[in-house]
Amino acid sequence: MSRGSHLPITPDEADAAFEPLAKFEHVVLAVSGGPDSMALLVLASEWRQRRNGAPPSLSVATVDHGLRPESPREAEFVASEAQRLGLPHVTLPWTGEKPSRGIPDAARRARYRLLDDHARALSASDVAVVTAHHQGDQAETFAMRLARGAGVNGLAGMPAERVLHEGSTVSLVRPLLAFAKSRLIATLEARGLSSVDDPSNSDHRYERARMRSALSDLDAAGISPAALATSARRLGEAEAALRYADECFAATLALSFGNEVFAAFDRNAFRAGPALLRQRLLGSLIARYGGASERPDLVEIEDLTARLQAEDKSTATLGGVMVSSGSRFVRVWREAGRLTQSDLILSPGESRTWDRRFIVQRAADAIGAVKVRPLGAENYARIAGRLAAKYRPPSRAAHALPSFWQGDDLVAVPSLAPFAVASQASLEETGCQLKALAAAAAC
C-alpha cells in the first residue's frame, strides 16, 4: 500500500469529487456515524463553506434500522455532529417487523425507500441523496458479483450516479468511489473527529463481511481493492459502449412497445445480431414487462436467447413474462399468472405504484375513490369488441393490465385506449391516470 493511501483527502480533491453535486438544489447526506459517512459529512460541510452560499443546500439523514440497541445513540451522535457543523438532521426509523433472513438486502431496500420518501418530501425540486461508498465498497461489490457469474453490467459495479429508487425523481450520488477507506479514516483523524463502529461490518454471517475478509488476503497477494475498483470502472466504460450498441441494434429490429401492453420486434433481425446484444435486449424487455416478479439469472436469459435462435416458433415464460416467437415477430408481455398485485383503493389526489410497472393516479378533482385491479381474462372478453381488430394486442397481454373500477362498473383501462375503435365507448376516464415506469434493463 502506498504512502498516499494514508493521506487525508485534500480540498482540491474534495472539490473535484463533489462538483457533480453543484447541479442540484438540495443534497441529503446519508450518514450512519461510521468513519466513511462521517468523512463524507465533514468533507461536504467544508465544500459547502468554500462555495460561499452557492447551491446546493445540505441536510443530513440517518436511517435507524432498529437492529441493534446502540442504533438510537448512534443517530444522536450524528445529529450532534451535524448540529456542530450547522446542518439540519433527521433520523428515519425503519419500523415494523424485520425479516428473519436476508437482513442486509432488506435493510438496504428499506434504507433507500426511507431516504427516497424523505428527499421527495422536501420543498426542493431537484434533490440528490449522497452516500459514502468508497473504493473498497466498489471492490467488494465487484467481487460478490463476480462470484455469481455476473455479466458486464453487473461487473461494472456501482455507478457514481443513478436514480435512487425505481420510479423516483431523486438521484443517488456516490462522490467518494475513487478514494480508499484508509484516506477517509485519515481525513477524520486529521481533524480529531470520532466515529461509531457497527459490529455487523465484520460479522461473517453476512456476504459482504466475508468478502471483505477474503479481499484482505487477495490484497496481500497483489490483487488490491484499487485494482478491482479500476476493473469495475473500466467495465463501466465498456457498459456505456454496450448501451450505445444496444440502441444501434434495437434500431434494426422495428422494436415497438405497444403502449406498454406488449413489446414486439422483428425475429429475423434479432437472430442476425450478436449473441450478447440479443441477450441484453431480451433481458431489458423482461425487466420492463416483468413487473414485481423476481428477475431471472443471466444464465436463464442466455438459455432463452439460444432457444429463440434455434427454434422457428416457440413460447416460453421467464421472469414473469411470456415470450412468444412466431414466423415474423417475437412478442413479450406480462404473464398474468405471475401477477401478485392486489387491488388498490385510490382516493382523489392519490397515486400508487402498481406491479412495479405503472404509477396509477386518481385526479385531485375527481369525484370519489376508485379500485385498481388486474383486468383479467373475463373482463377483457367483455371489452374486446371495443378494440380495433387490426391493431388489437395479444389478448393474454391485456389480462395483466391495471383496470379502474367504481363499484361493479369498469370505468377505464388506459393502456388499451389507443387500440379502441373511436365509435365505441371510451376506455379512458379523465380522473383515472396511468404512467408507465418503463423499468431499465438488469442484465
From TrEMBL:
Is rRNA processing set as a keyword in this record? no
Entry's EC annotation = 6.3.4.19
Sequence ranges assigned to domain tRNA(Ile)-lysidine/2-thiocytidine synthase N-terminal in this UniProt record: 27-213
State the InterPro entries in the record.
Rossmann-like_a/b/a_fold (IPR014729), TilS/TtcA_N (IPR011063), tRNA_Ile_lys_synt (IPR012094), tRNA_Ile_lys_synt_N (IPR012795)
Q: Where are the transmembrane segments?
A: none
Q: What class of enzyme is it?
A: ligase
What CDD domains does this protein map onto? TilS_N
Task: List residues binding ATP.
Answer: 32-37
Pfam families from the UniProt entry: ATP_bind_3
What's the chief localization of this chain? cytoplasm
Catalytic activities: cytidine(34) in tRNA(Ile2) + L-lysine + ATP = lysidine(34) in tRNA(Ile2) + AMP + diphosphate + H(+)
Q: Does the keyword Acyltransferase apply?
A: no
**Which family is this sequence assigned to?**
Belongs to the tRNA(Ile)-lysidine synthase family.
Read off the HAMAP family from this record. Answer: tRNA_Ile_lys_synt
The protein's name in its UniProt record: tRNA(Ile)-lysidine synthase
Q: Which organism is it from?
A: Hyphomicrobium denitrificans (strain ATCC 51888 / DSM 1869 / NCIMB 11706 / TK 0415)
Q: Taxonomy-wise, where does this protein's organism fall, top ranks first?
A: Bacteria, Pseudomonadati, Pseudomonadota, Alphaproteobacteria, Hyphomicrobiales
